[in-house]
Amino acid sequence: MRQTPPDVVAHRGASAHRAEHTRGAYELALEQGADALECDVRVSRDGHLVCVHDRRVDRTSSGRGVVSELTVQAMSALDFTHHSVDDPEHGVLTLDELLGMVSDHGRGVRLFVETKHPVRYGGLVEQKLLAMLVRHGMATPADKESSTVVMMSFAPSAVRRFRLAAPKVPTVLLFDRWGRRRGGLLPPWADHAGPDIRLLREDPDFVARAAEFDHDTYCWTVDDPADIALCDRAGVRFVATNAPARTRSHLAEPDLPRFGSVTP
């Protein structure tokens, strides 16, 4: 079991305080001392990787439409900030811009990139991601532990496809139901297990079983103090949270609250 607290991963930035996937959300996450950032990526109509979770932009912007049918220029004209005064840059954030933020940041920060599926472009999103990592000099780290980027997906085929193309970049297989994963063993192309926090509430010993197969655990999305305590006790390595500063504060407490399980 890990003896150190989990790394704090800012889920879509500090999204509890600023609109998700915006420059302002990621800047705040860095200010709050997040160990890593997390983003979702999709391919725009003109072939760019944009940081948008949903298939459509309706929920997160002032516009409407399917991401894969919109150009970056069209999405740049929309307001993704919910009119936040803290973030004057309101248009869509591209992965290229986010990687630039990570590269320019003085403190070593990782970026967890989730490729979304199913999508009309199939494996193009992984191809685009690899090409961008090559351009930023992040595709061939000295070892997986020093890699700036971690790739992850709920789609096993996507994780496998990316591993074959970029064997030195670590991967996370995300899942929200146990299936074959409960024993802790992952396919050879997945480095880390990525369970939903609801699964760990049911079975916190999964983390130890995964560790027996040399798999660390990335758990999402961890905001409640009881869940933070659970992940810390269980030995989770990475906790994805919407509130990095608050989560870090709970992890720093000498007597972390132990409130038991929370009903999903």
TrEMBL record:
GP-PDE domain location is 6-251
Q: Which Pfam families match?
A: GDPD
Residues of the region (Disordered) are: 1-20
InterPro entries recorded: GP_PDE_dom, PLC-like_Pdiesterase_TIM-brl
Q: What is this protein's name?
A: Glycerophosphodiester phosphodiesterase
